[in-house]
Specification:
The chain is about 35% helix and about 25% strand. Helix 3 (about 40-50) packs across helix 12. The two termini are about 25 Å apart. The chain is of the alpha+beta class and about 400 residues long. The chain contains 12 helices and 21 strands. The protein folds into 2 domains: about 1-160 and about 325-385, FAD/NAD(P)-binding domain (3-Layer(bba) Sandwich), CATH 3.50.50.60; about 165-315, no CATH class. Bound molecules: flavin-adenine dinucleotide. Flavin-adenine dinucleotide (FAD) binds near residues 320 and 367. Flavin-adenine dinucleotide (FAD) binds next to helix 1 and helix 12.
């Protein structure tokens, strides 16, 4: 039986992927797939051998839902509507005669003596006390969920909870007037770390966003939280170019475009408006031509291009996708079954675990994988109890 505290099942699926539901990602090699998870990649690597994106695709196809792949690898239903995914789950539940109960929040769970199962207390008077052989918690983020304390009381470790996948706030004159400007490929990192994350970047009214920043926020989620979202980041605006190739490009401009204003001739693919701001930072933002670029200015321009530092003061929720990093510690869970190693007959699936992925369908895939392993094990072990001949 499935219990849901709100009045509708699958609300997050409904709003996911901008209403289109980015179901999974076209990455079919467990080792490579696991690389997309800042937390959880080791146990997931093995779990993906049991259920991976190909299995997700097949499961939906068998139920009449075809998925399509976008050029960046994200997979969506061909209908481009998350309702297709919701309808599929709900009709499958009906077909399998699985009872669905909404407006029923689990408030307390007590293991019965001698591993006899669970006594569950819900806030709905019709289900005030339920006995169950097995309990699977798929309750999403444990942030502000009262089950967190109960899990701790049972002996589980809860890895610190923090938001992941957010944009960063930054008020800096170099960005003023540039809201809406997108850069094809940058690399960003915390200024005091060597780790760098590549991808498109978007300048917003509040600061910086886009896939590169979301990647940074995911991989460094805990560092950002420890620093209360006040830290410095460094942006390399042209990561595909080495310092030597940039120097060669400056030299080429001096020769071929000597009389042209520096700020009017941006290196590809930098947007001109951004280039003009960067030139101003390096003191060559006036109508100065390339043949008057001094060595000091060239050094400063180079520094600005490869490592512009920005002070971050806060974060903004990314509306398209966000997750909580942290949750039930992975050492407390047997990933072959998703059963707790501490409390028998207790299973976990999805975001309540200390697992999170970058954007692109990876978070749902982790949820499908852990849920399918848990469900299969619960079904098999329950069938064995009911019919020991099996
Ligand atoms: C705006 C947004 C868009 C997203 N888009 C994508 C995307 O396109 N692709 C992707 O891969 N990921 C996406 N994600 C992330 C993805 O939604 C989550 O990783 C995923 O939903 C986790 O599934 P879950 O079942 O663990 O948790 P949830 O989907 O959060 O479901 C948990 C359910 O448990 C219920 N619940 C909680 N406590 C109790 C209780 N005590 N008793 C009864 N019920 C309870 C909740 O009401 C909820 O319905 C998105 C997230 C957001 C916020």
């Amino acid at each position: 039986m499935l219990f849901e505290q709100s009045n509708r099942f699958l609300q997050k699926v409904r709003i996911s992927g901008g209403g289109r539901c980015n179901v999974t990602h076209a990455c079919f090699e467990p080792q490579r797939l696991a690389q997309h998870y800042p937390r959880g990649r080791n146990p997931l690597r093995a779990a993906f051998h049991r259920w991976q994106p190909k299995d997700t695709m097949r499961w939906f196809a068998e139920r009449g839902v075809e998925l399509k792949t976008e050029p960046d690898g994200r997979m969506f239903p061909t209908s481009d509507s998350s309702e297709t995914i919701i309808d599929c789950f709900l009709s499958e539940a009906q077909r399998q005669r699985i009872a669905l109960q909404t407006r029923c929040a689990l408030q307390h769970c007590e293991p019965l003596p001698e591993q006899a199962g669970w006594q569950l207390h819900f806030d709905n008077p019709a289900f005030a006390l339920v006995k169950a052989r097995k309990l699977c918690l798929a309750v999403g983020s444990l942030k502000s969920n009262n089950l967190q304390r109960q899990l701790e009381a049972l002996g589980h470790t809860i890895a610190p909870l923090a938001p992941s996948l957010f944009a960063v706030n930054c008020s800096d004159r170099r960005l003023s007037g540039l809201a809406g400007v997108a850069v094809e490929n940058v690399s960003v990192g915390l200024a005091d770390s060597k780790r760098r994350y590549q991808g498109p970047l978007l300048i917003t009214h509040r600061g910086l966003s886009g896939p590169a920043v979301l990647r940074l926020s995911a991989w460094e989620a805990r560092v950002f939280a420890e620093r209360n979202y006040h830290t410095s980041i460094a942006v390399n605006w042209l990561p595909q170019q080495s310092s030597a190739s940039l120097e060669a490009w400056f030299e080429q401009q001096r020769i071929e475009n000597g009389n042209k204003a520096i700020h009017n001739t941006p290196p590809s693919p930098l947007p001109k408006r951004l280039w003009q701001k960067l030139c101003a930072t390096a003191n060559c933002g006036d109508a100065r031509p390339w043949n008057q670029l001094t060595k000091a200015m060239a050094r400063q321009l180079m520094e600005t291009l490869v490592s512009s530092q920005f002070s971050i003061s806060g974060k903004t929720t990314n509306k398209d996708e966000f997750v909580t990093c942290g949750g039930v510690a992975l050492k407390d869970v047997d990933f072959r079954t998703m059963e707790s190693k501490i409390t028998p007959n207790l299973y976990f699936a999805g975001e309540c675990l200390d697992i999170d992925g970058i954007t692109g369908g990876f978070n749902f895939q982790a949820a499908w994988t852990t849920a399918s392993i848990a469900a299969k094990n619960i079904a098999e072990s329950t069938a064995q109890v009911l019919n020991p001949q099996l």
